[in-house]
Amino acid sequence: MDRPSGVVEPAHRPEPEGRPAVRGGGGVHPADRAGVRPAPAAPGPGCHRNRAHRPVVFPDVTDVVVVTRFEAGSLHAHGFPSGRTAVFPVGSGVEPVDHAVAGDFSRAVYATDGELVCVDPAGVVLWRLDFGPVVRRAYLATVDGAFSADGGSVWLYRPEAMAGRGDGVDAWVVLDAATGRERARAELGTEGHGGRHFAHPDGVHVLLDVGEGQDGVQIYRGRLDGDALDLSAYPWGDRVLVGLSPDGGRFMTVDHSQTDVAFHTWPAGEVVARFEVDAFGRDPDEGCVEWAGGFLDPDTAVVALFGETEDDDEWFGHHLVDVPTGRVLGTLDTPSRDAADIRPLGDGSWLTFDADGRPHRHRVT
Questions:
Q1: Where are the domains of the chain?
Q2: Are 44 and 64 in contact (CB under 8 A)?
Q3: pTM of the model as a whole
Q4: What is the mean pLDDT of residues 345-358?
Q5: Pairing of strands 239-244, 228-233
Q6: Model confidence over 148-199: pLDDT tens digits?
Q7: What is the pLDDT of residues 131-153, one digit of tens each?
Q8: More confident: 4 or 218
Q9: What pLDDT digit, counting tens, does each position of 66-87 carry?
Q10: pLDDT at 258
C-alpha cells in the first residue's frame, strides 16, 4: 500500500478508540489533563448548575469522533469527519484525570479526583458534580466520562471500590448533559482502576470496558430505559474492548494477555473471526497483540503487533484483516511511532499522533 500523507490537527494522545494504549499493559484506562472554574447555584445534592447562562452552540454538525487534549489551561478538541476544531478555556491549577467533548461541540466535561465539571465553548461552567473525598490513593482509581452519541447524556464510570469512596461499590451513572441531574445508575460487580466508554453507532447503547489490573477486564453493554439503566455484562473477564465497526454490526477485542484479537457480532458477542500472532507471520514467543487498532471501514480492521526478537531488537507493525472472510490482507504502511500510535476512524482514514499529542490524519492513496 502507498504511504499516506497527513495533516496536523490538535487532539488527544494516540489511543484505541479515544484513549492511549501503553505497550505491555495498563494502557486502556489513561488519565489526561484539564482545569476548573467556579460555578454558582445548586439544583440538587452534589450537583451544581449555572441556571442563568445560555450556552454558545456550534453549527448543526455532529461529529462521530471527537479527540481531545488539555494544554495550558484549555481543552483542545478536534472533530471527525468534519475536521473542525475548538478550544474550551477551563482555567488552570487543577489536575483533571479525564475529559470529553460532545459531538456537536456544545459542551465539554472534565473530571478531577473530586468532581466532574461541565463547561460551554466560552469556558462558562454549566454544572459540576461532587464525587466526595477519596479515601485511598487517587491514582488507583480513575473516573471516565463520555457523551452519548446525541450529546444529551454523559455516561460516567465511578471506581468507588478502589477509591474507597461512598459505599465502596463501583457504579455506572448516566447524567443529563444539560443539567448534571442523575438520570440512571447501576451498580457493577467490579473493583476497577479505570474504565473506557464506547458510544454505539445506533445512538442508544453504550459499552463500558472496566480494567481491574491483573484481575482482568469486564465489558458491559448499557442503554437508558426510562429512568433505569438496562445493563448487560459480557461473559468474559479477559478481553479488552478495542473498537466498534462504523455500522455497529461488530466489535473488536484483544485478549488481556495479548495473545490474540477477536471480532464479535453485535450485540450477542459471538466470535466471527480470531487471529493469533502467528497468523501475521510472527513468532508468538516474540510478539504480542497491542490493545490498539480498530475498524478502518465496516469490514476491514487494523491489528497492531509489537515484540522483541531473541537479539533484543524491538519491532512493531500494523496489519489489515478482512473480518467477514477471516483473511489477513497484508500490512498497513503508516508512520506510527509505536504499535499503539494509531486510531482508525472507520471511514477509510486513521490518525497517528506526534510527541505533543497532535494528530496527523492519513488515508491510503
A1: 62-237, 240-364
A2: no
A3: 0.83
A4: 91
A5: unpaired
A6: 999 999 999 999 999 888 888 999 999 999 999 999 999 999 999 999 999 9
A7: 988 776 656 789 999 999 999 99
A8: 218
A9: 999 998 889 999 899 999 999 9
A10: 97
Per CATH, domain 62-237 is 3.30.1380.10: no
Three-state SS sequence of the chain: CCCCCCEECCCCCCCHHHCCCCCCCCCCCCCCCCCCCCCCCCCECCEEECCCCCCCCCCCCCCCEEEEEEECCEEEEEEECCCCEEEEECCCCCCCCEEEECCCCCCEEEECCCEEEEECCCCCEEEEEECCCCCCCHHHCCCEEEECCCCCEEEEEECHHHHCCCCCCCEEEEEECCCCCEEEEEECCCCCCEEEEEECCCCCEEEEEEECHHHCEEEEEEEEECCEEEEEECCCCEEEEEEECCCCCEEEEEECCCCEEEEEECCCCCEEEEEEHHHHCCCCCCEEEEEEEEECCCCEEEEEEEEECCCCCEEEEEEEEECCCCEEEEECCCCCCCCCCCEECCCCEEEEECCCCCEEEEECC
Other C-beta atoms closer than 10 Å to the C-beta of 279 total 17
Q: What homologous superfamily is domain 240-364 in, according to CATH? A: YVTN repeat-like/Quinoprotein amine dehydrogenase (2.130.10.10)
